[in-house]
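Researcher: We're teaching a course module on how sequence relates to structure. For the next exercise, students receive a sequence and then see the predicted structure as tokens, so they can try to spot secondary structure elements on their own. Here is the exercise chain.
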Amino acid sequence: MKILVCISNVPDTTSKINFVDSNTKFDTQGVQFIINPNDEFGLTRAVWLQQKQQAEVTVLTVGDASCEPTLRKCLAIGADKAIRVDADPTDGYFVAKQIAAVCEKESYDLIIAGRESIDHNGAMVPGLVAGMLDYEYITNCISLEIENDQATAAREIDGGKEIVTSGFPLVIGAQKGLVEESDLIIPNMRGIMQARKKPLEVMAASDAVATSTVISFDKPAPKGEVKLIDADDIDTLIDLLHNEAKVI
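Model: And here is the predicted structure for the students to work with:
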């Protein structure tokens, strides 16, 4: 079995976010980047399949050379090889086209991508890839078992979960539950040393055009000042809740 895990290189949620060029570009200065958490759940599940079923695991990202430390970490976690499509991931459609172009050159039985990235939260790439390649697609996936050339998966739905079966090739939209946070693989020294010797291929971008343009970014508005009311001044509290907050 050949598995492709799609990786987004995203800012750590503890990083301070700023924008430049009249709020049209993200300022990467001083920002720590990590593997997108939903992608890491998928990568861990792929490594388990590698160990259980001798699957070959390839990781892929669309981005410039600054993404390579993230790919090397994926290799240290257990992926067999890595691919970087040398392009600016301008929007979800463009990224999906790049992934699909790679898959058209080399077929994969299973493609795992996070259901969404934590930077733009677009939640569109795995579905677009499945549509472009005409593959089966299961999103919000919280469990996955493979036996006798058939996948059995559970996906999160409103109020519960749905159990589905599928053949291959298959695209999975991964999230927490596919594995738990406690199951995530922390690279050890042996894995880090082996990662340096594993192949990391850089590919030219396919001929695709982004379909959307960023006009500007806005930070959330700062919280307003807090008004403190004396505990005995119930009339003022009711007046503020009624006339200013308008919640009663």
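Model: If you want an answer key for the exercise: The CA atoms of residues 91 and 128 lie 12 Å apart. Residues 2-218 form a domain with the Rossmann fold fold (CATH 3.40.50.620).
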